[in-house]
Specification:
heterohexamer, A alpha/beta, C alpha/beta, E alpha/beta, A: alpha/beta, Hypothetical Protein Ychn, Chain: A, five-stranded parallel β-sheet, 5 helices, 37% helix, globular, E: alpha/beta
Amino acid sequence: MIFSLAVYGAPFSCQASDSAYQFACALLEQGHRLHRVFFYHDGVYNGSTLATPPQDERNIPTSWSQLAEEHELDLVICVAAGLRRGMLDATEADRYEKPAHNLEQGFTLSGLGQLVEAAMISDRMITFGN
Amino acid sequence: MIFSLAVYGAPFSCQASDSAYQFACALLEQGHRLHRVFFYHDGVYNGSTLATPPQDERNIPTSWSQLAEEHELDLVICVAAGLRRGMLDATEADRYEKPAHNLEQGFTLSGLGQLVEAAMISDRMITFGN
Amino acid sequence: MTETTEQPAVNPKKLLFLNRKAPYGSSLPREALDAVLMASAFGQQVTLVFLGDGVFQLKTQQDPSEIEMKNFSKTFAALELYGVSSIFVEQSSLQKRGLTLDQLLIPAKLIQSHELTELLEEQDQVMSF
Amino acid sequence: MTETTEQPAVNPKKLLFLNRKAPYGSSLPREALDAVLMASAFGQQVTLVFLGDGVFQLKTQQDPSEIEMKNFSKTFAALELYGVSSIFVEQSSLQKRGLTLDQLLIPAKLIQSHELTELLEEQDQVMSF
Amino acid sequence: MILHTVNRSPFDTNCLNDCLEMAAAGSSIILIEDGVYAALSKTQFTDQMLAALPKHNFYVLRPDLQARGIQDCIIDEIEAVDYSGFVTLCTELDKVVSWY
Amino acid sequence: MILHTVNRSPFDTNCLNDCLEMAAAGSSIILIEDGVYAALSKTQFTDQMLAALPKHNFYVLRPDLQARGIQDCIIDEIEAVDYSGFVTLCTELDKVVSWY
């Protein structure tokens, strides 16, 4: 079955990101397909490559990134929500003349259309809100 | 009178940052002193220099930064909460070998002791939570 | 970044957007509205429901200029342009909050909770905001 | 970054930390506890109050290993080392949630709501979490 | 005495109820952000507010009322203040407790 | 039929109440994150849950119960599942509605 997930909560602050990640692992383990994880609202912070939790704690952006590499996942951060909150890739940093970019490997910035497309394409769309 | 503020909400997502900023402006206008604004929990995102809201909208980190410059404010981001969430200055980026730093001018990373000290020193401590 | 409004070649889906949060305290209502407009641009069968504190999003006379926020309630007018006409407000939510339909800034249909129950069941996907 | 635990030269203040959130769903309880320990290290007169869902923070047997989070409830044991002994749990909050004192992982005193009202009035500052 | 701030909708959370339960008689309460919805004059919550009015001094933040379009729909006895009035209240009362 | 997810404490918000009001008879509800507190067997909310039990299929996420130390305190009739069970429920039911 084809799943997509929508994540609206900030990592390290509320449990939405953790729940979405655990759910993603479980559905992949069962052999289902994960079409996309779409990060919106405070969920965009899941893609920060600068997140530096203590070494004995989970690193949520890195965990997503590794899962994406293993399973060729499409991790999409809403570009409008991301820009507002300071989540930039090299292209956007350049365009807005910002001094740095901070997107973790495996994440891409794209439009809200990707959320809608995920809802259209997937058999199940699960929202992890806060 | 000496005020300090504690801000625990993410900018652009909940109103806590906006309320704290408006409150800060109003107290300074009345001639009171603002000893410190301490950003903790999701409030740490107030210090992102990469925040890029649309041009016709408020830029919360920039607003804080300008207010700090005008009134020589002490804008402190909790270093532990900030590191976890990917808010780094040049020193921390260096220490943890991260590819970038993203702290807006006028903000500093410091310990939780600065929250406690603010509570001790100030006549009024106001928390803006979410 | 690539923003595509190209419509994927699948049949339109019934997408219901369930709005439960008050405006300004959270940016979620505003972000929900953007998603609704996008779904409509993609040619989907969009239904918009306001439940609980979500009904406050439609209150007339909103003016957040003093708190330096954008009056996103003006964007609700775009719903008509986008052809989104399936807009419902849950009756008891409105009543509990002392609001009437004429205090809402767009024409919305009242819906009873049991009707909403059925409406949810008819959808392909429900997007909660 | 400079972490100073040097105590400023002012008299100790009465600081009350008001904890109202459930653990794990939010990281605020954990961050509150860090602040409490810091206030104690600064030699302040610290009072810790658990109200509403905050009482769940003290439930025994917490084990978030399966959700890959840290068991921050173990840190409550440090309160004694830091000399924080003024720890209160609001009685009706506990009762409404079906919990008893022996299900809590540190010795806390029961407090009635009207006593908490007075306790709040006695403080120099109240820090809400 | 204490100035309590409440920033959550009374229809959504128990935030205001918790505050009302703990606030001393004669203390002040200011409704801000989504808390301003508690000031509405014709809601399911209005009776609770009217019952609490004699016990506390209630204020509501006018800019937050205006943002939400409800400045003309609130209980008469609740005083609307701007940020400057909010600051003044903080100075007049001994300390501030936030409920969120 | 729908699988509803609820992730907020019933003591703190109206999230679960809203869900219970809108969920069709025979639909399924899974309590996750702070929503798991609704499964407690001796609380002020327990009667409401017991009343709703015949109408819906209730599940609760075991890892979230364990995190909070309440796996031994829940209503017997509510089935505890792990993430794998949560995924299976999603596949068995037609769609998922999140209440948060």
